[in-house]
# Entry
Amino acid sequence: MRDGQPEQYVPGEATPRKPNWELRLYVAGRTARSVKALANLRRICEEHLKGEYQIQVIDVLENPQLAAGDQILALPTLVRKLPEPVKKIIGDLSNEERVLIGLDLRPYGATEI
Amino acid sequence: MLAEESARQLLREAKTALPKAPSGIRGLDEITDGGLPRGRPTLVCGGAGCGKTLLATEFLVRGAIEVGEPGVFMAFEETAEELAANVASLGFDLRKLQQEKKLAIDYVRVERSEIEETGEYDLEGLFVRLQHAIKTVGAKRVVLDSIESLFSGLPNPGVLRSELRRLFRWLKDQGMTVVLTGEKGEGTLTRNGLEEYVSDCVLFLDHRVNDQTSTRRLRVVKYRGSTHGTNEYPFLIDEGGISILPITSLGLGHKASRERVSSGIPRLDQMLGGKGYFKGGTILVSGTAGTGKTSVAAHLARATCQRGQRCLFLAYEESPDQLVRNMSSIGIDLEPLLRDGALRILATRPSAHGLELHLVATHKAIQQFQPDLVVVDPITNLVSVGTPGETQAMLTRLVDFLKLDGATACFTSLTSGDVESEMTEVGISSLVDTWLVLQIVRANGERNRTLSIIKSRGMAHSNQTAEFRLFDGGIELCDTFLGPSGVLTGSARLAQEATDRASALALDQEIARKEAERERRRRQVEQQIASLREDLAAQDADFERAIQEARNRRERVAEDRGEMARTRHQFAGSNEGAGTEEGQT
# Structure
C-alpha cells in the first residue's frame, strides 16, 4: 500500500485521511474472462486508486466454500469489502464507467448526465 | 434362447424406462405412480401460500430420512434459520439433518440494488456453490426455491435464461432429482416461464376457498414418460407434513373377506345368518333421532376391541368424553378400551374442514392407526359441509378406501321423521353391505324402538322386525308380535305375551283333560269286554252241559231200545230188522 494523490477521488472529505480500498475479485478458474476482468480491475485501480488498494483474487473452483460467504452467484464478481458499505460489481469490468459508479469512484455531478 | 432372453431384458428395460425417486410424501407417490422422475427436474408451481416450499422441503427431508438420499436445499427466499423454523412445526428437524450431513442448505441472497453490471458474466458461482453443497453431503436431490428470484435480482434476463438452461442440463448430467418451485403467473404456470426449462414433470398446487372452507389441491399437469393421475387431489398440511389423498384412483378391486365378525349383540348375530357381519363389510345403521344408532355402533366397537382388534371412532356429534359417559349408561365402558389404545375416538365438528379435508384427515388417521373397524357417527352431519352429491362422492371414496384396507366400516345415518325411513339422506344405501334400520313405533302412548335388517349382502338374514330395548346392560332384542294394528311393541307386546301364555296354558289343560277322558273310556270298554267274556264263558259252560246231557240221553235211549229188542225178538238175529222196526215206530 502506497500513498498516492487522493484529493480528487474523495472531494467531500475535509481531512485527507484516505480509506483503505480492499477489493476482492471472485473468478472461476483462469478463463479468458477471468484474466480480462483482473486486467481491467488492475488498470482501473492503477488509474484511480493508485497506492490505496489491495486486490485479492479468489478462485471459487479452488475454494468453493468462500463463494457462499460473499453471496457470489455471477462470475466474475468484484466485491468492495472496504470502504463500507460492501458493494458488488459483476461482469468482466470492461465497462469502466459502470465500474466507477459501482465503486462509488465517480465524482458527484458526473455520475448522471 | 439367448435372443429370447435379451428380448425379455429389453422389454423389462422398456417398462422401467423411467426410474423414479419416491418423494415419501403420503399420496404423491401413488398419484405419480412411484415418485418424481429420477435424475430430472420437477417444477412445483402455484400461488402464494399454496405449500410449494413445504412440498419441496418434505421431498428433501423424506428423501434423506426414508429413502437414504441426501439433498441440497438452495433457498433464494429464506435463510436456513427461517426455513428450519418454518418447518419445525411439521416435525422436520433440519438442523439435525444438516449436522448428520444428510442435508445442506445454502441461502442465496440476490439483491438487485447491490449489483452493478459491468460487462460479460455467467452464473458459474451458482454452479460452484451447488456443486460444493452436493459434494458435501453426497446429494442425490436438489431443491431450488425459488430460482425465480434470480429474474428480479439479475439485470440481464438473456444471460439468466441461457445460464438456467445450462444449469438444468448440468443438473441432469449430475443425475440430480431436482424440485424447483415457481410462483403462478397470469395465465401461465409460472411468472417467468420456468416451465420452459422443465419439461419432464410439472405439479400445480392450488389453494381455494369455497364457502368459507379452504381446500388445498394438487394436480399433475404433466409427467413425461409416465402414467399419472390427472385429477385435482385435495391435500392437507398438518403436523405430519403433507398428505395427499389419491381418491379417484380407487376402484372395485378389493378382496372380499369370508370372515365374520360379531356385532356385539348376540341376538343380532343370529339375525345376520347366525354369525354377524362380514369382516371388511360396510354397515349402515340408519334411523330417526334417538333410535339407538350410536349404541348399536358402540356395541360393535366394543366387540371389536374385545377381540383384540382396534377401532377408530369418528364422532361428528359428541366429544369423546360425552360418548364415554353416554355409552356407560347402557353398560358399555369405553374408558379401558381407550386406555389400552384399542379404541381411538376422533371428535371433530363437520364444519371444521371441507369434505375433502375430512376425507384426507380420516385417511391419514386410518393409515396411522390401522384400525380393524372404523365408525363414522353420523355421516349425515357431513352433509352440512357439502351438498348431498359431494357427500355421497366422499363417502364412496371412504368406503372404497376402507374396503381396500380390509377394515370394517360402520356408518350411522340420521333420517328425519318426515322422510321415508328406508331412505338415507345421503343416498349411500347402495354402497353398504348390511343395512340396519332402527325405527320408533308409536302406539298405546309409548315410543318403542324396533330394528330390522333391510339388507345384508351375502348371508341369509332374518326378515323379522325385532324390538330393540336399551337398558343399563346394553341392547336387548326381543320378538315382536303382529297384531291387528301392526307390530306390537312395548307393553302391547307384554300384554300379547301374557295372552299367549294364558292360551298356551289353556291348551295344555285341554290336552290333559282329553287324555284323561280317553283313558277312562278305554277302561270302560275294557270292563265291558271283560264282562262279556264272562257271559260268554258262562253260556259256553251251559251249552256244554246241555249237549252232554243230550248225548247221554241219546245213549241211554239206544241202550234201552236194544234191551227191548232183545226182549221182543228172541230169535231175530239182525240189528237191521230191529232198526227198521224202530224206524217204523
In short: Confidence is low (pLDDT under 50) at residues 577-585 of chain B. Residues 260 and 278 of chain B are 4 Å apart (CA to CA).
